[in-house]
């Protein structure tokens, strides 16, 4: 979202070329909102959403823990001031040497979802704590995260029993209901599965203590979404329903919900054209596209708010595309985007709610375009 601080920065600095500007005050506000909405859950910020050092340092100072996907992200969290006990290695696909490096850095909490990953952790990080990720259907999410990660719930019991047999500490279950999850009840189905796994493990003498509720907390793009309080209430009621008075430790991994609305991407109209004189549909080409940080427009999953200096004038549908020589670099075509008819070459556009998954998705130099520049204020 546009804030006075971002507007003042852009007006004063006038940065050339596309760039992302992130307002730390929004990040601070979002963190405080999560801690109020889910007061009994520890926050593990998903570093992959936006690993800017300023963001990590602020969150570390506020008391956040960190969900990391690589050794590099672990080192970023440590450099920002987090202690190893506040870091989870949440990627279920890890090289054994990376597990060993994380363990040497003091990290002791690892995600697994199969026997083979358990065996790697046992060899490289003896005595570590592990939690098993289970599959969920991701219904209601605009960016599903099922299939690639997790195992079926019944198999999780065997995975955790194998972990215990190899000297690891089987501590819990994790799941992810899908990024930009708009259904506050989505966690209920997964918590039902988690409760069943807790009971099955207890019958085998394995006492689990933690449920990692994952991320999924949304950012408001073009449509209204429930507030964090609604998610917190729904999750709390589900935990009580499925676990009764034996409430487990819970952690959450917000990424998009923490930083998405804190960023605005400044871009410029490079070309407005039609494919034929009779074509009523305009093509609007920007100086940033899928390869410049807007990868989440793939399949038009995420529809960002786009503000122009001509807002308020008559509009018509148009195709929005990026600048590269790749036919995949089209943002919105299946569902054309309404933009002012008077929009023209050289106009500055502001793409809001782009604080998450933009700088980290941007290519290094595809077609010679520089990576997306970022300013954190």
From TrEMBL:
Keywords: Lyase, Pyridoxal phosphate. Its cofactor is pyridoxal 5'-phosphate. It catalyses: L-ornithine + H(+) = putrescine + CO2. The active site is at 325 (proton donor). One of its GO terms (biological process) is putrescine biosynthetic process from arginine, via ornithine. GO terms for cellular component: cytoplasm. Pathway: Amine and polyamine biosynthesis; putrescine biosynthesis via L-ornithine pathway; putrescine from L-ornithine: step 1/1. GO terms for molecular function: ornithine decarboxylase activity. The modification N6-(pyridoxal phosphate)lysine is found at residue 48. This is ornithine decarboxylase. The lineage of its organism: Bacteria, Pseudomonadati, Pseudomonadota, Alphaproteobacteria, Hyphomicrobiales.
């Amino acid at each position: 979202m546009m804030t006075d601080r971002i507007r003042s920065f852009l007006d004063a600095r006038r940065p050339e070329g596309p760039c992302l500007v992130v307002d730390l005050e929004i990040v601070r506000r979002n963190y405080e909102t999560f801690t109020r909405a889910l007061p009994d859950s520890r926050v593990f910020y998903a570093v992959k959403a936006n690993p800017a050092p300023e963001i990590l340092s602020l969150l570390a100072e506020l008391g956040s823990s960190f969900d990391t996907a690589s050794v590099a992200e672990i080192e970023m969290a440590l450099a920002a001031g987090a202690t190893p006990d506040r870091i989870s290695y949440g990627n279920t696909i890890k090289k054994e040497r990376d597990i060993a490096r994380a363990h040497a850095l003091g990290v002791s909490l690892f995600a697994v979802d199969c026997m083979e990953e358990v065996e790697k952790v046992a060899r490289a990080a003896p005595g570590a704590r592990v939690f098993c990720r289970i599959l969920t259907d991701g219904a209601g999410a605009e960016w599903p995260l099922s299939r690639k990660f997790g195992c079926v719930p019944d198999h999780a019991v065997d995975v955790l029993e194998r972990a215990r047999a190899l000297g690891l500490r089987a501590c819990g279950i994790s799941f992810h209901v899908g990024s930009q999850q708009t259904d506050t009840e989505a966690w209920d189905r997964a918590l039902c599965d988690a409760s069943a796994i807790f009971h099955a493990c207890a019958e085998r003498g394995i006492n689990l203590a933690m449920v990692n509720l994952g991320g999924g907390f949304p950012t408001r793009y073009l449509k209204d979404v429930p507030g964090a309080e609604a998610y917190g209430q729904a999750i709390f009621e589900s935990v009580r329903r499925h676990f009764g008075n034996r409430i487990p430790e819970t952690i959450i991994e917000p990424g998009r919900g923490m930083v998405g609305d804190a960023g605005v991407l400044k871009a410029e109209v490079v070309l407005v054209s039609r494919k034929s004189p009779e074509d009523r549909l305009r093509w609007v080409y920007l100086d940033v596209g899928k390869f410049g940080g807007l990868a989440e427009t793939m399949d038009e999953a995420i529809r960002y708010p786009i503000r122009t200096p001509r807002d308020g004038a008559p509009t018509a549908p148009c195709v929005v595309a990026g600048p590269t020589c790749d036919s995949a670099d089209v943002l919105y075509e299946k569902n054309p985007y309404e933009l002012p008819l008077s929009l023209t070459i050289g106009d500055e556009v502001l793409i809001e709610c782009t604080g998450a998954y933009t700088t980290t998705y941007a290519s290094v130099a595809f077609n010679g375009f520089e990576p997306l520049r970022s300013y954190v204020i």
